[in-house]
Amino acid sequence: MNNVPWLNLAVALGIGLLIGAERERSKGSGPDRSSAGIRTFTIASLLGAVSTVFNFWLLVVSIFCVMIFAAISYYNRKSKDPGLTTEITLIFSVILGGLAMSAPALAAALAVSVAILLAAKEPIHGFVLGMVTKDELNDFLILAAATLIILPLVPNESIGPFEAINPHNLWLIVILVMVISAFGHLVLRWLGGRIGLPLVGLVSGFISSIATVTAMGERAKETPVLMGSAVAGAVLSSLATILQLALLLAAIHPPTLHALAWPLIFGGTSIAIYGLVVTLISFHKNGADTTKLTETFSVKTALMLAAVIALVLIVSAALKTWFGQTGLVFASGFAGLVDVHAPTIAVASLAAVGKLSVENTVIPILVAFSVNSLSKAVMAVISGGKQFSLQVILGLIMQIAATWLGWWLT
Q: Do residues 370 and 400 make contact, with C-beta atoms less than 8 angstroms apart?
């Protein structure tokens, strides 16, 4: 009696009771009701546990027998749409009961997860069928594959020229860009165009601030009545740039984020205040349908960003090796013309592997950020004209000045 694993048997009993209780409430009534309830699931879980105690092959036989009984029960049910959830869950309960004898914590966690999935049938079905479109579901499946299948297979080591590239970190950035873009798309889809262009600009800025400024400029030129809202959207996209930089640095190298904390806070606060003022002024002109400005996410954009990052990593490592800190500043500024995230990630990655001190990361990142703002100003002039560009450039100047002020004070 002393060798009997009573605690494991108790876990198996709890697994059966937990899953069985949920199935009991969902089994229905009348001739079409499910044949398995709380008692059946509890006995099935204990069957798996006791079978495991005696012999592994006895567990296999028990599972096979339960499969036969479940198949017979499914065949005899007369409902037009009986489903297989209860039968599969019954078989899984036997397996969980057996697992409880060797890994009770894992078995219990899986049982809780199963019970939650079973209880959340209506919300899950409603979300998949009513809230998510087919294209969105396909995009989320791509994101899941990129995260759960590809990421574990990507090597996590420095390779390439100057050992400047870590494929695992690069793919992590691809996933992060897609996640941020998908989140922004869902926010726009759920809230619609009622909040107007300012929210669209803020969310789209996580995808590409330069592209957002261009789109807002074109909208302002096409519909002058939306000038104020378009300016607010363009300005707030630069706030998204600050926020995304903070997220990227937190994921890659938190010490670099700490070194840039005050410049980012100053720059983010200044552009947020300016954007809020412009938004409040233009809020009464709100109402355009702007949900079509973004897509769930762009795999091409994420991969292109990763390619740029890889190139910048190699060039930055080479210039750092050949010319020291001066070469790195030049490389960061050049890359910042296209995208501020690539040089930021490159510099932070160098610091993460010990090839650059934290103190020496600040200037290259701020230079890239400043040069990137110059690109936004140019695109504002080209796409939106004089009235639009003057208001946007004023906000950019305030942000850059506040950012460097934060650096000077620290």
A: yes
63 in Cβ contact with 95 (< 8 Å): yes
Eight-state DSSP code of residue 103: -
Q: At what angle do helices 38-54 and 85-99 cross, to 10 degrees?
A: 40
SS3 156: coil
> Angle at the Cα of 241 (from 235 to 246), degrees rounded to 5?
140
Q: What is the dihedral of CA 57, 59, 61, 66, to 10 degrees?
A: -170
The DSSP symbol for 100 reads T
| DSSP for residue 162 | G
pTM: 0.53
* 69 closest CA partner among 80, 79, 77: 77
Strand, helix or coil for residue 164: coil
Model confidence over 60-114: pLDDT tens digits? 888 888 888 777 776 766 555 566 777 788 888 888 988 888 888 888 888 888 8
Give 165's DSSP letter: B
Tokens of 307: 């390619």
Per-domain boundaries in the chain: 6-124, 132-409
Q: Which residues are CB-neighbours of 137 under 8 A, at least 6 positions away? A: 128
What is the spatial distance between Cα 328 and Cα 353, in angstroms, rounded to a whole number? 16
Q: Which two tokens stand for residue 91?
A: 């078989």
Beta bridge partners of residue 159, listed in sequence order: 165
Cβ-contact 8, 101 below 8 angstroms: yes
Looking at residue 225, the DSSP 8-state letter turns out to be G
Using H for helix, E for strand and C for coil, what is the string for 280-304? HHHHHHCCCCCHHHCCCCCHHHHHH
Q: Which two tokens stand for residue 223?
A: 């519909």
Question: Letter for the amino acid at 74?
Answer: Y
User: In angstroms, rounded to a whole number, what is the distance separating the alpha carbons of residues 241 and 400?
Assistant: 12
Residue type, 295: E
121-178 pLDDT, tens digit each: 777 766 666 666 777 777 778 878 888 888 888 888 777 676 667 788 778 777 766 7
One DSSP character per residue, 37-63 reads -HHHHHHHHHHHHHHHHH-HHHHHHHH
Spatial contact of 382 and 220, defined as CB atoms under 8 Å apart: no
Q: Are residues 290 and 204 in contact, defined by beta-carbon separation less than 8 angstroms?
A: no
